[in-house]
Amino acid sequence: MGIRHGSKIQHHSKPISKIYLIFILLLLIFTPRVDSSWWYIGALGARVICDNIPGLVNKQRQLCQRHPDLMQSIGEGAKEWIKECQHQFRHHRWNCSTLDRDHTVFGRVMLRSSREAAFVYAISSAGVVYAITRACSQGELKICNCDGHKRGQASDDKGNFDWGGCSDNINYGIKFAKAFVDARERMVKDARALMNLHNNRCGRMAVKRFMKLECKCHGVSGSCSLRTCWLAMSDFRRTGDYLRKKYNTAIEVTMNQDGTGFMVADKDFQGSTKNELVYVENSPDYCLTDRSAGSLGTAGRVCNKSSRGTDGCEVMCCGRGYDTMRVKRVTKCECKFKWCCAVECKDCEDLVDVHTCKPHKRPDWLDIT
Ligand SMILES: *[C@@H]1O[C@H](CO)[C@@H](O)[C@H](O)[C@H]1NC(C)=O
Ligand SMILES: *[C@@H]1O[C@H](CO)[C@@H](O)[C@H](O)[C@H]1NC(C)=O
Fold first, then answer.
1. pLDDT of residue 108
2. Which ligand approaches the C-alpha of residue 357 most closely?
3. Where in the chain is the domain with CATH 3.30.2460.20?
4. Given the CA of residue 90, which atom of ligand 1 is nearest to it?
5. Measured distance CA(258)–CA(178) in Å, rounded
6. Of the candidates 367, 326, 368, 316, the residue with the CA atom closest to the CA atom of residue 349
7. Nearest CA owner, ligand 2 atom 4
8. Which of 85, 91, 95 most suits a substitution to test ligand 1, by most atoms within 8 Å of the C-beta?
9. Closest protein CA for atom 12 of ligand 2
10. Measuring CA to CA, which residue among 316, 261, 285, 273 is closest to residue 116?
């Protein structure tokens, strides 16, 4: 793009200074800043080496060095919450896609204070709570175990039960997530830092919200007259679904005068923002590729011709139209149960139409050479 642009400029009267200006501009746009985050741990997989993760602040680097086993869990957990984020936004223009070998992980979208950033901060800190709590219970970590504080008898709507010794240690998960994830934002005092801290907390609490009682029955022939129970985390999908709903109802805020808290932008808002996601900046429409806004655009995205929702071709393609391809699809069919015990199927082929969004038209000035 730069080269074509440059050659166009050369027809003008003062080529050198203009080319120079554009060069500086391109440098400013593409020079990586220290925008990276602990999220990058997920991309490193098993090779977590604390000094090699750009964007860890000192406190995080110390925690990383002191607890390599926890970092391992956080890294594995990152793959899961990123997948959950992509699942929740699979039908949206912004789809939570990550950029390979990019330290910002999600691109520059996270430098903004948008609704999408709010969601990513919340689900990522929820993901850390989940990963660490689970690793504690599985005995994978030196520093924590499952929670044995609950002892003796208790009761629920089904009657009395005995506490088993091994509940999920969510409080440890929350404590560590808070220390590690929040460390970066605690060093800054601006609207974005406040917003991130708030949404991080929402994420941590979301996991706790879905703790449930799990029980094992004892007693004569499984009569369940005696039960041993413990508190366990629900599937991470519950947290994902919950935060996705919170994304829909996220609240726009502005920082108050003395910089210690928010004000809700909507004067008519009643109630508390405590358990709501908050954002400061409106989102771009994510229709076009705009790296500075962190938008990949929707060219080439698959859309649903008959849907009126966000996955519909009209909305997804931003009115640019779509291409249709007829593709062969292979499915299992005519499955028969074979005695005993297998299911045998045939491979059936049919043709389905796949619609993908058209690319945006190049602006006219790019075609002048
Ligand atoms: C998200 O959208 C981008 C750009 O439109 C596409 O390249 C990418 O494959 C999508 N990612 C996922 C996880 O669907
Ligand atoms: C497309 O959207 C329609 C209407 O919302 C829905 O019934 C259908 O299952 C969708 N098709 C696919 C392939 O997702």
1. 64
2. 1
3. 303-367
4. 14
5. 24
6. 326
7. 307
8. 95
9. 304
10. 285
Strands 226-233, 159-163: pairing kind: parallel
Distance 315 CA to ligand 2 centre (A): 14
DSSP conformation letters of 66-91? H-HHHHHHHHHHHHHHHHHHHHHTTT
90 Cα–ligand 2 center, Å? 13
- Residue-level pLDDT at 12: 45
Of all ligands present, the nearest one to the C-alpha of 352 is: 2
Residue among 136, 102, 89 at smallest CA distance from 298: 89
Give me the DSSP letters along 217-267: EESGGG--SEEEEEEEEPPHHHHHHHHHHHHHT-EEEEE-TTSSSEEESST
Ligand nearest to the CA of 90: 1
Taking the centre of ligand 1 as the mean of its atom positions, its distance from the CA of residue 90, in whole angstroms, is 8
3-state secondary structure 288-313: CEEHHHCEECCCCCEEECCCCCCCEH
CA of 346 to the centre of ligand 2 (A): 26
Token pair recorded at residue 13: 């009267």
The alpha carbon of 97 and the centre of ligand 1 are apart by a number of angstroms equal to 6
User: Ligand 2 centre from 244 Cα, in Å?
Assistant: 20
Q: How many Cβ atoms are within 10 Å of 299's Cβ, its own excluded?
A: 16
Position 158 pLDDT exceeds 80? yes
* Radius of gyration of the CA atoms of the chain, in A: 26
What are 255-313's pLDDT values in tens digits? 888 878 888 888 888 888 899 999 999 988 899 888 777 788 999 999 999 999 999 99
CATH number for the segment(s) 303-367: 3.30.2460.20
Q: Could you tell me the CA-to-CA distances from 121 to 18, 24, 195, 279 in Å, in that order?
A: 40, 32, 9, 11
CA distance 265 to 139: 46
Non-local CB neighbours of 368 within 8 Å, separated by 6+ positions: 8
> Is the C-beta atom of 298 inside 6 A of ligand 1?
yes
What is the rounded CA–CA span in Å between residue 109 and residue 99? 11
In terms of residues, how long is the chain?
A: 369
358 pLDDT more than 90: yes
